[in-house]
Amino acid sequence: MSSVAVPFYQRRHKHFDQSYRNIQTRYVLEEYAARKAASRQAAYYESSGLGKTTCRLCARRARTLAHEAMQESRKRTHEQKSHASDEKRIRFASELSALEKEIHTARHRAREHLDRLAIQRMVEENMALERHAVEERISRAPEILVRLRSHTVWEKMSVSLCFTVQGFPTPVVQWYKNEELITPASDPTKYRIESKYGVHVLHINRADFDDSATYSAVATNAHGQASTNCAVIVRRFRDGEEPHPAGIMPFHLPLSYDVCFTHIDVQFLEKFGVTFATEGETLTLKCSMLITPDLKRLRPRAEWYRDDVLIKDSKWTKLYFGEGQAALSFTHLNKDDEGLYTLRMVTKGGVSEYSAYLFVRDADALIAGAPGAPMDVKCHDANRDYVIVTWKPPNTTSESPVIGYFVDKCEVGLENWVQCNDAPVKICKYPVTGLQEGRSYIFRVRAVNSAGISRPSRVSEPVAALDPVDLERTQTIHVDEGRKIILSKDDLEGDIQIPGPPTNVHASEISKTYVVLSWDPPVPRGREPLTYFIEKSMVGSGSWQRVNAQVAVKSPRYAVFDLAEGKSYVFRVLSANKHGISDPSEITKPIEPQDTVVVPSTPGQVVATRNTKTSVVVQWEKPKHEEDLYGYYIDYSLVGSNHWEPSNHKPIKYNRFVVHGLETGEQYIFRVKAVNAVGFSENSQESEAITVQAALRKSVSHMACPSYPHGITLLNCDGHSMTLGWKAPKYSGGSPILGYYMDKREANHQNWHEVNSSLITRTIYTVEDLTEGAFYEFKVAAANLIGIGQPSDPSEHFKCKAWTMPEPGPAYDLTICEVRNTSLVLLWKAPVYEGKSPITGYLVDYKEVDTEDWITANDKPTSKRYFKVTDLHQGHTYVFKVRAVNDAGVGKSSEISEPVLVEARPGTKEIFSGVDDEGNIYLAFECKEATDASHFAWGKSYEEIDDSDKFKIETKGNHSKLYFKNPDKSDLGTYSISVSDTDGVSSSFVMDDEEFERLLALSNEIKNPTIPLKSELAYEVLDKGEVRFWIQAESLSPNSTFRFVINDKEVENSDRHKISCDRSNGIIEMVMDRFTIDNEGTYTVQIQDGKAKNQSSLVLIGDAFKAVLAESELQRKEFLRKQGPHFSEFLYWEVTEECEVLLACKVANTKKETVFKWYKDGSGIDVEVPDLQQGQCHLSIPRLSRKDEGVYKATLSDDRGHDVSTLELSGKVYDDIILALSRVSGKSASPLKILCTEEGIRLQCFLKYYNEEMKVSWSHRESKIPSTEKMKIGGGEDVAWLQIVEPTEKDKGNYTFEIFGDKESYKRTLDLSGQAFDDAYAEFQRLKAAAFAEKNRGKVIGGLPDVVTIMDGKTLNLTCTVFGNPDPEVIWFKNDKVFELNEHYVFSLEQGKYASLTIKGVTSEDSGKYSIHVKNKYGGETVDVTVSVYRHGEKMPEIKPGQLAKPRPIPPSEEVLKPEGNAKSAKK
C-alpha cells in the first residue's frame, strides 16, 4: 500500500461525472417563499364571505370597503417588502464590510508574519556565524559518559541497550552484533535504534536464542572515535517459568486502539514459509494457530503487513481470520506483491508475529526476450487535464536492457486503453496531459527493449481530473440560528472581464525530454472559466512560439516537449477567457532540458554469508550517491555456469538481503545493482564464492547449546537401581556433545534432584539408591562447549521393582536411517536385561500411524541388531518397535519410534566405491547438508568402525572417504554412514564378491601399471608378399622404448627387418621383406614407458605359420602377375533385367597388342573382340539352358605375360544363376489368367523368362499341387501354366503360383470359384464338344490332287479316302452343281471309305471344277479338283507337283455342338 497521503479533493471525489459548481444561495429561496405567501393571502380575501348580501347598496358598499381593504393590504405588503429588502441589504452590506475587514486584517497579519520571518532568517544567519566560531572552540572527540550494561533476559522478551556519549560535532553512532553492523532496515521487526540528547538506545524486539551475542556501539566524529560493548544472554524457559511480564509489548508495532481487553495466548502451529510464485497466479498465505482461551467475543486481531505497511482488503488482496486460521489471499499476483509479509496477532498481553518472504517472478513474456512488466505505478499532482505517472523499472538480468516505456490510460468504467506517448519515455516518470475534466482514470505502463514490449503493469489507483484550487475558492460562513453564507471568490472579485496574467511561472520538473511548467492562477481571475496559453523562446532567438496553439490548457501545469537538447529556453504564460487574453506573465529564468537525476553509482563490496541450508545473507556497501534511489536488485549465479538469475523482482531499499531458493552444497556468487528513475547502475563486483550451508560457525559466539534428548526408556531394575537409556539430541548446536546431566524426582513431588555431578558420556546410565516400590520420573539434558541445552520432557513414571521375568527386557535407542521411497533401516541396541537365557534374536514390528494392527516384518528372529524394512508404501507414515527373543519367549517391546514418513528426500546421495590414483580402494559419500559441526560416522554391519589397522577415514568439508588399508575377503559386508547435525542423512553400501574383485583388479592395475593396448601384436600380409607385424598402444611418450624378439633373439632394424615406431599414434611395426619357412616361431614385442610396461606375443607355428606363408607366397605371385596384363576381377556372372546371363571380368594393365579370347570347354568362342581399354569384357548367354553348361575361360596375353580366368558354369553356379533368373523373372510375373481348352481349364502366368528348372510351385487352397494326369504343370519360354483336366466342383478355390528367387519368392493368386469358375467351365464344355465334332466329322483323308490334266479320249479316275463317324454322305459336284450319274460318269463307294469318280472317254467338255462333298451330322468338308482336258497333239499344261486339294470345311448343326447334358450334371 502506498504511504503517500491522498489529497482531500481526491478523497471526496467518487470517480464519476458530476457538477460540483452548482451553488444556490439562501436569498433566492427566501424571495421565492415571500411571493408564495402574498399570493396565498390575496386568495384568502377573495374567497372569504364578506360580500354575501341581498342589498345592492350594501353590496356596493361592501365591495368598496373590500376594494379599499385590498388596496390597503397591497400597500402594507409593499411597505413590508421594501422594509425587508432594505433590512437584507443593510445586513448583507454589514456582513460584507465585516468580511472585507477580516480579509484586510488577515493580509496585514500575513505581511507582519513575513517581516518576522525575514528578521528571524537574518538572526539565524548571524547566529550560525557565531555558532561556527563557538564550535571551533568547543570541538572534541566522542567521550562515553555511561557505558553499555550486560543483560540476561528470557526468550521472547524485549531488551534495550543504552549508553550516553558526548562530543562535538555530534558523534555518529553505529551498532554491531559480534562485529557485524546492525541495520534496522534489514530486519525492521527485530531492531529499532533511537538517539536523543546524547542518549543512544538499541531496542531488540522479542529476543530469541540467536540474539545471544556481544553487542558494541561505536561513536565517531571528525575528531575521533569511542566504543563500548556488553553481552546479552537469552535464556530459554520451560513449563512453570514465565518468559516476560504479560504487559510488555514491543515499542514500534503499529498497534491500533481497539486492543482486546484480556490476556490471550497465541501459538502458531502451521506457518507459511518462503514462497515463490509467478505473476498472474493466485496464492494464499495461511497460518494456523492455537488461541488460549478461545473466546468468541474477545478475539485477537489479525493484521497483515507487507514490508511493515498494513494491508487492507482490496481488489488484489482478501483477508480472512477465523476458526484458528489467518489467511491472506491474492486474486492476481503481480511483482508489486513481492516483499516481507508479517502476520501480527494483536492482544492486550502482547503481539505474536511471524514473517516470511514472498517472491513473485515475471510471467512468461508474450514475445521471447521481452522484458518483465514495470511495477508500483502511482499518480501524482493530479489536475483538470494533467497528472504525473511514476513507476519502478523491472529487473533485466537475462534480457536486453530496457530502452523506454509506454504509458497507457483508461477511463474508469471503460475498457478502452489509449497509449499516451508515441515514442518510448526513457525515465520512470511521465506527465500525462489531455485528460477530460471531472473524469476518473487509471494508468498502466509497458517496458520496451530490442526484443519487444513487455506485459502491462498492474493498473494504478483511480485518479480524478480535478483542480484542487476550485474547492478552495468556495467559502462557507456560519451565522446565528444555524444559517450559513456560501461565498465564492468569483463574487468577491467583482465584474472582471479580461483576466490578469498568471504569476510565479517556474519549472517544477526538468528532464532531458520535457519541462513541466507550473504557475499560480491570476488574481483576480474573474467569473468565467480560464484557459492558458504557453509560449517558449530559445535564448537569444528573440522570437516567441506558442506551444499549445491547438490544445486548451485548463490546469496550472503543463509539460512542454520537443525541446532541443543542449539549448536553453525561457517561457511565459497567458490566461484567457471568453472576453479576451491577458498580458504575458513574467518570463522565467533560462531553463535547459537535462536530467536532474542521474544514473546511480555502482554499489560497493558485496559480502555473502551463510544463513540456512537454502539461503544466503548478502550485504553490500551503499553507492556514494544514494539520493532518489528506488532500491537494489540482487542477482546470483552458480559458480562456473556463467548464467545469472534474479533473486528479487522488486527493488529493496536496504543494503542487506536474504537470497532464498538456493541448492544446498552448491557454490554461488552474487552481484548487486542500484536503480532509480533514470535506470540501473553498473553491476557491482561479484562476491566471493560461498557454499550454501547452515550458518554454524566455529566462533563460540555463533554456536548454540544442543537440543534436548528424547525417548527415555527403562532398561533394567533390581529394586534399588534403575538403568535408563535415551536418544541423543538431534542437533549438537555446532559443538560436539560432551555428555549428559540427569535429574530425577519421585511421583507427586515438585522438586527435581540432580542424579550426576559429572557428565555422563554415554546414552545409558544406572541410577542408584532408589526406594523399592516407589515411582520415579527422569529428565536428561545434553551439554557442549557452550553450555547445557534444554532438558528432555519428563519420562513416564517408572516403578522401582526388581525385574525377574524369564523373557528379555526392551531393546533401546531405536534409530531410523536410510529412509527411501519404499524401505528404511532400523537400528537398535541390545537389552540390558537378558532374562533367564541368552538372547537369540529380535522381531521388528511396524504399523501405519493411523492404524491399530502391528505387522511383524521378519518371520524368523534376526540375530543382528539392524534390519531393513521393505515393501512400505511411499508417502505413508510408520512407527516401529523391536522385541527381543530368548528361549523363554518374546520379551518386552521397546519404546515406539518416532513417526517416520517413508519418502526419499530430494537429492538423496548414496555411498559409492572407487580407487584413487595410488591404487587405494575407498568408499565415499557426499552430504551437501553437512555443516561445520557435522560428523561423518562410518560403520560396518552398522557398528562404528574403530579399527585403524584396517581402515582410514578422511573427511574434508562435505565429503568423507573410508579407505581400505589391506583389502581382503574379510572386508566383505555392509558398510554404512550417518551424518550428524542433519535431518537424518544416511546411506549404506554392500561390498560383495563381484564388487570387491572389480575394485581389487582396478587397484592392481593402478599399483602395477601397464601400458594399455589398443591392439595386441598382429600381422598382415602386404601386396608384395611382405609380412607386417604391428602393435598399437593407447599412448606412448617420447621417452618410451621397445624391442622385437623372434624365438628369444632380439631383432635389430635392417633391410630384412624394417622396424619403426609412430609414438603419436602408439604404433610399433616390423616389416619382413621375405617370409620363408625359416621364420616359423614366436614373435614378441616388449614396451616400456616410465614405470609402465607391457608386452605382446604372437605364435606362428604349425598350421598358423603355414597359412601365413601360403598367403605371403600368394601375394608375391599376385604381385608378379600384375606386372603384365591381368584380370583385376576374375570371371563372374550377373543377370540382366532382360533375363540374359552375362559372364563378365575386368582387365588391367593392357595395351593395344594385348589379345583377349573366350573359350568354352576348351573351344574358342567366336564373338566380337572387346575394347580392352574400357577395362571390362562381357559374354552374353541370351536364354540359359542345360546346353549352356560348361567351363568358360577368358585369356589375356601379350609380350609381357599371360593371365587366365576360369568359371565353371555348372552345379551350384548353374543353380545360383537359375535362382537369380527366377528373381528377375518373378518380379515381372503377370497376374494369373484363365485359358480354357478342350482338355479343361488352364491357369497361366506370363514371365520374362521361364525354365522348367526354375523352382516354382502351384497351390490349391494352400496345399501344394504335384504334377499328375489330373493336374498337369508345365510352361514355355515366357509362360508357366497349370492344366486342370476335366474340372469338377472340387477344383474350385484359390490357386497360387509361387516362383522362388535367390533371396525371396514371388506369388500370384487367382480365385477360381463362383462366376469365374462357371464361365470357364462353360467355355471348356464348348471347346470339348467342338473338338469331338472335329474328330468325327466327314473328311477327305487324301488322294485328290488340286489340278488334274488329261488327254481327251482317255478315262479319268478320281479316287480318295473318306472318313466319318457315323459314315458320311458322299456327293460329287461339277462346277458346284450336282450331276447325274450315267455311263459316262461312274461313282463308287467301297467299304464306306473309298470313294471314286470315273469319267470314261473324257472330252474337252469334261474340263472344269469337280468337287466331292463329304458330310455327316458332325459336319464335313468339300474338296475341289480342277480337271483340264487337252487334245491330242497339244502341249500338256505344266502342273506344280505334290499339291493336294485343300478342303473347305462344312460346319455341323447347332444341336450337335451343344454339350451333352447341362453344366451342373457335367460337374457332378
Number of strands: 98
Gross morphology is extended
Give the overall pLDDT as a whole number.
83
Largest sheet: 6 strands, mixed
Q: Pick out the low-confidence regions.
A: 1-6, 8-29, 42-55, 238-262, 697-702, 1461-1468
Report the span from N to C terminus: 106 Å
Strand content: 35-45%
Radius of gyration: 62 Å
Assign the structural class, choosing from mainly alpha, mainly beta, alpha/beta, alpha+beta, or little secondary structure: mainly beta
Total of DSSP H or I helical runs spanning 4+ residues: 11
* Helical content class: 10-25%
Q: How would you describe the overall organization of this protein?
A:
- With 1468 residues, the chain is mainly beta.
- The chain contains 11 helices and 98 strands.
- The strands form 25 sheets. Strands 90, 92, 93, 96, 97 and 98 form a 6-stranded mixed beta sheet that branches.
- It is extended and about 190 Å long.
Strand and helix map with partners:
Layout: H1 8-12, H2 26-47, H3 56-138, E1 140-146, E2 151-154, E3 159-168, E4 172-177, E5 180-181, E6 191-196, E7 199-204, E8 213-221, E9 224-235, E10 265-270, E11 275-278, E12 283-292, E13 301-306, E14 309-310, E15 317-322, E16 325-330, E17 339-347, E18 350-361, E19 375-380, E20 386-392, E21 402-411, E22 418-419, E23 429-433, E24 440-449, E25 463-464, H4 468-472, E26 474-478, E27 484-488, H5 489-492, E28 503-510, E29 515-520, E30 531-538, E31 545-546, E32 557-560, E33 569-577, E34 580-581, E35 606-612, E36 615-620, E37 629-638, E38 644-646, E39 656-659, E40 667-676, E41 690-691, E42 710-717, E43 722-727, E44 739-746, E45 753-754, E46 764-767, E47 775-783, E48 788-791, E49 798-799, E50 812-817, E51 824-829, E52 839-848, E53 855-856, E54 866-869, E55 877-886, E56 889-893, E57 900-901, E58 912-915, E59 921-926, E60 936-940, E61 943-944, E62 951-956, E63 959-964, E64 973-979, E65 986-991, H6 993-1007, E66 1013-1021, E67 1027-1033, E68 1041-1046, E69 1049-1051, E70 1057-1062, E71 1067-1072, E72 1081-1089, E73 1092-1100, H7 1103-1121, ...
Parallel strand pairs: 2-9, 11-18, 90-97
Antiparallel strand pairs: 1-3, 3-7, 4-5, 4-8, 6-7, 8-9, 10-12, 12-16, 13-14, 13-17, 15-16, 17-18, 19-20, 20-23, 21-22, 21-24, 24-25, 26-27, 28-29, 29-32, 30-31, 30-33, 33-34, 35-36, 36-39, 37-38, 37-40, 40-41, 42-43, 43-46, 44-45, 44-47, 47-48, 47-49, 50-51, 51-54, 52-53, 52-55, 55-56, 55-57, ...
